[in-house]
Amino acid sequence: MATNRTFTMLKPDAIEKGHIGAILEKITASGFRIVAMKLTQMTRNDAEQFYAVHKERPFFGELVEYMTRGPIVAAILEKENAVEDFRTLIGTTNPAEAAEGTIRRLYAESIGENAVHGSDSDENAAIEGAFHFAGREMF
Ligand code: IDP
Ligand code: MG
Q1: By C-alpha distance, which of 112, 116, 136 is closest to 6?
Q2: What is the Cα–Cα distance from 69 to 4, expressed in whole angstroms?
């Protein structure tokens, strides 16, 4: 299995509740190497672009409000099979359905406010990583 990269955000609800340390510990303990990381806040325009694929969905306005209401931790992570393994580590979109021990099961409240983002493909991981980081910020 090839080493590859995924992109994550610890979302505003996770930051507000003080879960940055616990979530990063779980990520690194699961074998992901941090390639890039920062605390940042998305503008409305950033969030509308980042989630453009969802713009026709009924929850789009709510999603943009949520993702812009406070800082996030954005990071690029490296591991064998990174995209798929990270989706497994975070659990399903709805934390009520997420497996025991997953980040969303442990730290998320609802399908909307679900604590963490994980890219869904290698192609989107590259696009999303480049959206948040310049090449010189990736290690
Ligand atoms: P994912 O984050 O598990 O990949 P997506 O379907 O790509 O899930 O949705 C992106 C984000 O939009 C979710 O993580 C969540 O914050 C929000 N979202 C998804 N479905 C709903 C919904 O039914 N109601 C409210 N927010 C939603
Ligand atoms: Mg998604």
Answers
A1: 116
A2: 31
Question: For position 1, what pLDDT does the model report?
Answer: 73
pLDDT below 70 — which residues of the chain? none
- Distance, in Å, from the CA atom of 21 to the CA atom of 15, rounded to the nearest integer, reads 9
Rounded distance from Cα 38 to ligand 1 centre (Å): 22
| Per-domain residue ranges of the chain | 3-137
Question: 3-137 has which CATH code?
Answer: 3.30.70.141
Q: Distance from the CA of 66 to the center of ligand 1, in angstroms?
A: 11
Atom 14 of ligand 1: nearest residue by CA position: 93
Give the model's pLDDT for residue 98: 98
Q: Taking the model in full, what pTM does it have?
A: 0.98
Residue 10 β-bridge partners: 73, 116
Residue 9 tokens read as: 């955000």
Three-class secondary structure of residue 108 per DSSP: coil
The residue whose C-alpha atom lies closest to atom 17 belonging to ligand 1 is 112
Q: Taken in order 112, 113, 119, 125, is the CA torsion positive or negative? A: positive
